[in-house]
Specification:
alpha/beta; single chain; Rossmann fold; 10 strands; about 600 residues; ATP binding; 4-stranded antiparallel β-sheet; binds adenosine-5'-triphosphate; ATP-binding; about 10% strand
């Protein structure tokens, strides 16, 4: 095993220890039971040899050993197995929880955009159960190690020829190692196809995507694609399994041939009176036991190494999260209020794995207290700009200054606690309406009921979403989502408006982002809503917060203090609506075009 495996073993043992010291130790009792079982041929040989030699001491010793091994075995196995199972569940649960935390708490979202990370995460997800089983399998390896070791000792004491069997039994361990390698190669070769088939399966079963595919008549095509990808994922695994099975058969036939020859040799010696019948009995039992225990050992080692591969992926995730955290070790507290605002200086950004920058050479000043609208065609870089301002990705070049302090120097969670936002791809939190909105500022949910309700109701009002609440049968207590008992379904536009309300719960954010939060609403309603946001933002703008509105509807942005036009990843124009109209450039053209469309 290489160093990585040892680290994984230590990690698994530590987690098992933390999850239940008593169980971790009790699980090892099974090893004792395996030792007693492995001694069975010796005890049986003693009984038969003692009877043949009319030696009562030998008979009693053998019989005592047989009875003891059977009785203790029963007890130790029950305690050991029970402890292993309890730990398996606890370790699995602890790992599940930790994986969720590691993915959710990573300082940036780069990992979610990185194909290499996604392949690792997919392989981990496929094998997550195995991580939980790792300690269980480790104890099993120890259990199964006892078998061959004791059997070899018993064989050596019974007859030296039995040791020749080792020469044919040991290649099975070679197969064990090779099959682990084949499986690892198969996992790697199938990772991308596995991720793709999981994605297609999700699309085929998720209500929205699946109904869209039906309407488009593309369901059959998607299912065919899914089975092709699943086959592409399965193929390398199948090949590895067939190889392993083929070699297992070859090795088993070789072993049986050798065992038959050695036993025939021993039978002849027994008939000639050169060895006593007790040794022959031990020999016969050892032949079966040796092969069985070596094969079992091979399989548990291969099971353990599969689990350790999953553990090594988990360690990879831990290392990744640690590296990301170290790279974002800023500790400066964000200012209580903004006085200068947010500045972007020479900002450039390329997504992980992308071949070109999505934003480059961005120089901007978002003044404290201002309502800033960002417009631009699809793919211009609007959402990317938001991700950078909220610290979701590291800049490829340049810097972002919050009142003169580099975003990298700020404590990222503290900065995010001062940001708020509603997004086009908002979360549909299927909770009660109170929780779904209150989640915009989780400390609100910890307050008393009256405080929660007043903040949530105010947020609904600020986002003109009070009518959504009125339509809910149990008001704030209504369970959202038809999949839950008593739950109600609401429309896409209503979900979106609750998301906007959620963004309004946090008081005095330094950065409030509204990234096409009203795309499901008609232009007139969006216009009215934005006027309201602008009004609310100006009321709080006295505390310096910047409100950033991203929209495709130019008519909505006239009320903004500043309009930024993005094009091809760069800033095309900046100014007030009036300035940009007077300049007669890209903004004025697009504005005129949209205005004509609505006439
Ligand atoms: N995860 C990603 N990986 C690689 N490239 C990406 C990723 N997300 C976005 N891009 C690219 O970055 C560019 C800017 O995308 P962005 O989503 O910021 O545009 P946008 O202006 O918000 O577009 P839209 O109006 O369609 O929402 C596009 O060229 C897009 O293809």
């Amino acid at each position: 095993m290489n160093g990585g495996w040892w680290t994984s073993l230590r990690l698994v043992t530590r987690i098992a220890w933390e999850q239940g010291r008593g169980h971790a130790v009790a699980a090892l009792l099974e090893v004792v039971s395996r030792v007693l079982t492995a001694l069975f041929p010796l005890f049986a040989g003693l009984v038969v040899g003692g009877l043949a030699a009319r030696d009562l001491t030998l008979v009693l010793l053998g019989a005592g050993g047989l009875v003891l091994s059977r009785a203790l075995n029963f007890l130790l196995v029950i305690v050991g197995v029970e402890s292993r199972l309890v730990l398996m569940e606890r370790v699995g649960h602890a790992i599940d929880l930790r994986v969720g935390q590691l993915s959710g708490e990573a300082a940036t979202l780069d990992h979610l955009e990185d194909p290499a990370h996604q392949d690792q995460a997919q392989a981990l997800a496929e094998r997550l159960g195995r991580v939980g089983m790792a300690y269980n399998l480790l104890v099993n390896v120890l259990n199964n190690l006892a078998g061959p070791v004791i059997t070899i000792v018993v064989a050596a004491t019974a007859d030296w020829r039995l040791l020749l069997l080792l020469a044919v039994a040991l290649p099975a361990t070679w197969l064990g190692r090779r099959s682990i390698q084949w499986e690892a190669e198969a996992e790697k070769a199938g990772a991308e196809a596995g991720r793709r088939s999981a994605h297609l399966l999700g699309a085929a079963t998720a209500p929205v995507a699946s109904s869209e595919l039906r309407v488009l008549g593309a369901r059959r095509w998607a299912l065919d694609l899914l089975s092709r990808e699943a086959a592409r994922w399965r193929h390398p695994h199948r090949t590895a399994e067939v190889r392993t099975a083929g070699w297992s058969i070859v090795l088993a036939v070789g072993y049986l041939g050798a065992a038959a020859a050695i036993l025939a040799w021993m039978v002849r010696d027994a008939l000639d009176g050169r060895i006593d019948p007790g040794r022959l009995v031990t020999g016969v039992l050892v032949v079966g036991q040796l092969r069985e225990s070596v094969t079992d050992l091979q399989w548990v080692i291969s099971g353990l190494s599969g689990a350790l591969r999953a553990v090594s992926r988990y360690r990879w995730l831990e290392d990744y999260a640690r590296t990301v955290d170290e790279e974002h070790a800023g500790t400066a507290a964000p200012p209580a209020r903004l006085t200068d605002g947010i500045r972007l200086q020479g900002v450039g950004f390329r997504y992980p794995g992308a071949d070109r920058e999505s934003l480059s050479d961005i120089d901007l000043h978002l003044p404290a207290g201002a309502v800033v609208a960002v417009v631009g065609e699809n793919g211009a870089g609007k959402s990317t700009l938001v991700k950078l301002l909220t610290g979701m990705h590291d800049l490829s070049s340049g810097r972002i200054l919050v009142d003169g302090v580099d975003l990298r120097a700020l404590d990222l969670p503290a900065w995010r606690a001062r940001c708020s936002g509603a997004f086009q791809d908002h979360a549909r939190l299927e909770l009660t309406a109170r929780e779904a909105v209150g989640a915009g500022s989780v400390e609100v949910l910890d307050a008393g009921r009256a405080e929660i309700d007043s903040r949530v109701l105010r947020a609904l009002e600020d986002s003109s979403a009070s009518d959504v609440l009125r339509a809910l049968p149990d008001g704030l207590d209504t369970q959202l989502g038809a999949a839950w008992p008593g739950g109600v379904d609401i429309s896409g536009g209503q979900w979106q408006r609750l998301a906007v309300a959620r963004a309004m719960v946090r008081l005095d954010p330094l950065l409030l982002v509204l990234d096409e939060p009203t795309s499901a609403l008609d232009p007139a309603t969006e216009h009215a809503l934005f006027d309201r946001y602008a009004e609310a933002a100006r009321a709080t703008g006295g505390r310096g917060g910047v409100t950033l509105l991203i929209t495709h509807r130019f008519s909505t942005v006239a009320a903004a203090d500043l309009v930024i036009v993005l094009a091809d990843g760069g800033v095309a124009e900046v100014g007030t609506h009036a300035d940009l109209m007077a300049a007669g450039g890209r903004y004025a053209d697009l504005y005129a075009l949209q205005a004509a469309g609505y006439r």
